[in-house]
Amino acid sequence: MRNFLGNSPISLLLSGQFEAFFLTVLYLLPALVIALSFHEAAHAWAANKMGDPTAKNLGRLTLDPTKHFHLWGIIAFLFIGFGWGKPVPTNPRNYINYKKGNVFVALAGVTTNLILSFIFYFIFFLLYYAFGVYNTIILTIISYIIYMNIFLCFFNLIPIPPLDGHHLVKGFIARKSPRFYMAYERYGFFVLLILLFMTDYIQIGLSYVASWVLTLYSLFFGLFI
Q1: pLDDT tens digits, the chain, 225 residues: what are they?
Q2: Structural domain count of the chain
Q3: Which residue in the list 1, 40, 48, 121 is annotated as catalytic?
Q4: pTM of the model
Q5: CB 3.0–4.6 Å: which of 96, 114, 161, 204 could bond 188 by disulfide?
Q6: Active-site residue flag, 185
Q7: Is-contact 148 27, C-beta < 8 A?
Q8: Per the domain annotation, does 168 fall within a domain?
Q9: Per the domain annotation, does 3 fall within a domain?
Q10: Range of the domain at 68
Q11: 102-114: b or e for each residue (b if 16 or more CB lie within 10 Å)?
Q12: Chain mean position to CA 56
């Protein structure tokens, strides 16, 4: 994901727009902290609910961002527009129901991000329309949080390992074609790396999806104006 409300941080830095660079980073950080912390904590909570306490025992059932952030992942996000957090460790063998557990844990993160985007859109709606708050900094930060959560939700639904979407289809693929699944899981990460060289296209696709989500939010809250 790149900076979805303007130029990427690295392009601003390379063009000598240092003030704009630091402002963009300051706007991005709250969105990144909220979206990533809730996403990973949701995975840990869901795994624990399904009978696997691995993440909980390792201190990952928390909203503390320091438990979920990967230093190089954050630096990469801020400078090249794509980053990552620490994967939540799980042991599916502990799940009460293996198939349901995999799906539930995979959906927990993306569902949480979608819910957060809705909540912060509601906050934006209240501030702007109900209370007449036109502070650019506040509204921009909230906008970043909304977009970040939508992007993180739908990006993770791409069915490629190690993204969450792959857990939603791996049962079907493994059952239909075990050999293909083994190759799919083994080389999925390399496919993901190839996609990273197509970030502009991913950005366009995610922006299109986000516009539809925001349109639905707007239509819903527009009923109350």
Answers
A1: 334 545 566 666 667 677 777 888 888 889 999 999 999 999 999 999 999 999 999 999 999 999 998 888 887 777 666 677 888 999 999 999 988 999 999 999 999 999 999 999 999 999 988 888 888 889 999 999 999 999 999 989 988 888 898 888 776 666 667 777 777 777 777 777 777 677 667 778 888 999 999 999 999 998 887
A2: 1
A3: 40
A4: 0.88
A5: 161
A6: no
A7: no
A8: yes
A9: no
A10: 9-222
A11: bbbbbbbbbbbbb
A12: 21
